[in-house]
Amino acid sequence: MTADSDPIQVPGAPASEPPAVDEPTRPRGPLPPKPDQSGPDTYTPTGAVTATPRDAVAQQGERLTTAQGLPLRDTDHSLKAGRRGPVLLQDHHLREKITHFDHERIPERVVHARGAAAHGTFVANGEAAAYTRAAFLKPGAVTETFVRFSTVLGSRGSADTVRDTRGFATKFYTSEGVYDLVGNNIPVFFIQDAIKFPDIIHAGKPHPDREIPQAQSAHDTFWDFVSLHTEAQHHTMWNMSDRALPRSYRMMQGFGIHTFRLINEEGVTTLVKFHWRPRLGTHGLTWEEAQLIAGKDPDFHRRDLADAIEAGAFPEWDFGIQVFPDTEDQLFHGIDLLDPTKIVPEELAPVKVVGTMTLDRNPSNYFAETEQVAFHPGHLVPGIDVTSDPLLQGRLFSYLDTQITRLGGPNFAQLPINRPHAEINDMLRDGMHQTAVHSGVAPYHPNSLDGGCPFPAMVTGGAERGATHDDGAFVDVPQHLAEDVVTREQPASFDDHFSQARLFYRSLTPVEQLHVKQAYAFELGKVYEQAITERQLRCLANIDAELCGFVAEQLGLPAPAPTEQVPDSEPSPALRMVTGDRWPVSGRQVGIVVDDETDAAAVASARETLHAAGVTPLVVAPHGGTIGGVPVQRSFHTATSVELDAVIVLAPAVDPRVLELLREAFRHDKAIGVATEAQALLADVAIPPTAPGLVTGDTAAVVGGVLDLLPSHRVWERELV
Ligand code: HDD
């Protein structure tokens, strides 16, 4: 809503009244935001679109009541014996209000505590129907989804832009029950066996003595673990790349990581890996930018996702599968499909797109939806099954177990956000927070009292009920056991820990490799114990000599020699983020620096052109309010380069904060447009007039030039000169 539009009307409120600042005594619409805090023009009020169906019982009407519905006259003063007290125990409203408040928090997730989520829709194109009988993957099937993105290590209040893997968990509310794909933005995992999960997390979380550092991998225990459990080296290499610093949740790939088994209508099985591909491309922040944002806007990713959806810039992902034959050995080109520390390069198995997801609705209540959503890799639908990947097998236990503690009992599936959109007829009863009022007397099977209901498909009723394979039941696929010994051993193929770390590093472009090298130098530079640093350098020596040499030099240590013969493989260009492609710029933010003298018509036309391109312009001025009638979104006090994808300077503003903004934008490889009248500034910030990614000229030329540079994400040439 813009500043000058009418206040939102609530039912029963007088038709129109001026915004009041006094305490309201009768219902009316919310106050409009200040001009400098209102969103850009493309924003729309969310009220109508965020109403969540299916959770009817929430704060209706205008009268304040207790939890029992008793109307209240006063919620600001305790009941006292006389004006000066003491307070009386009989004040039930006081006790109810404070008791409820005391219990408002629930335990945060032991991992992935920090997250942001959105509702969406998945539309299948039918390409998967040959491999799976899953109804939501049939041609044209439309399925509601809820996606929660997260960091792994940080607490609930930690910063968004830390160096970390990101969770990408999707709940599909299919006609056959809930299907959860609980993935990450990195296609491999740290460990091969779930039994080590508590260990890697203990190592990654803050040190137990002082509880520092928060949400970081740059500390001794993390590097101790990954250098001792060398299977973690591949994932760690991804963590040192810009994949671990996403520009936006909207610009992240997602991966199911494990190999899953699909079953088609004929019962034929296929092995697959799942991929999410963002239509906006996969893009990162620079490390310095990520660190600055962690202080300036710790909610950066959360805000970016919500703002983009509110502005109508709905993020989209194509959903794809890599398909492998379900052979006895479960190997593909020698790669063990059960090893979650290995990828299958897309050059060997291309990703086949099977549908598209659009996120188009923000949650209306963080706690009810984003916090209480409960994912589980074992929430499967007919046509999709697990494999024996030992990491996945352990996960099948962990998620249900953790939800019972986190959500206070076994009935969390009844919470609105977790409720399937398919019919439920279970025989689960009672328990903490039971909200269903079950009828009938026989929650067991078989029974002769409740009419025999509910019947398992294919078993009871059989032919009379027409129950067949297609009756909608989940059918367990018979599996051959490879060996008939009980053992704690793993296959020999799991012992290759370095070849794919090398494959990933050598597949990157020079600028991406530079960032990886700098990341290792930074992280290992934070490790106190030299023995750990040296052990990690020995791992790097087995991966790539040049990488190892760079990092060793930065640390002032000798580069060790390799200790293993590591096989080479063909580089996989599909692993690069810097591709030379041009990507949609929808939802990108561009700052327009102006002052009181700037031609208002030029500012208006710059904003219009940017809007028309789907970009959000943010007018940056010496003060809030308006400039020539144009609303100001950021004053020099609140503006920061790191929330902008590009900067356009229309005013010769020599304010030191603007100069710093320009220096940072330049250092972070962002497109910069400087109008002729402001060009003298360039000398102040030591940006050469011929610098790559710098556009000068009149307003139209600089806006056009910046819009031409934005689709490439960054001006990488600046880093490689
Ligand atoms: Fe996990 C949460 C992803 C291995 C145990 N995991 C969690 C979330 C994501 C992942 C995205 C957050 C879900 C949400 O937004 O609510 N986890 C992964 C991936 C893994 C993986 C991609 C490997 C391929 N996880 C893994 C293992 C274990 C766990 C091996 C335990 C043996 N994960 C959990 C958990 C969490 C969780 C403790 C914490 C909160 C929750 O489940 O609901 O059960």
Automatic annotation (TrEMBL):
The keyword Repressor does not apply. InterPro entries: Catalase, Catalase_AS, Catalase_clade2, Catalase_clade2_helical, Catalase_core, Catalase_haem_BS, Catalase_immune_responsive, Catalase_large_C. Its EC number is 1.11.1.6. Residues 39-49 have a biased composition (Polar residues). Its cofactor is heme. It comes from the Bacteria. Residues 65-453 form the Catalase core domain. It is an enzyme of class 1 (oxidoreductase). Residues 1-49 are annotated as: Disordered. It catalyses: 2 H2O2 = O2 + 2 H2O. SMART domains: Catalase (SM01060). It holds the Pfam family Catalase. Keywords: Heme, Hydrogen peroxide, Iron, Metal-binding, Oxidoreductase, Peroxidase. PANTHER family: CATALASE, CATALASE-B. Belongs to the catalase family. HPII subfamily. Decomposes hydrogen peroxide into water and oxygen; serves to protect cells from the toxic effects of hydrogen peroxide. This is Catalase.
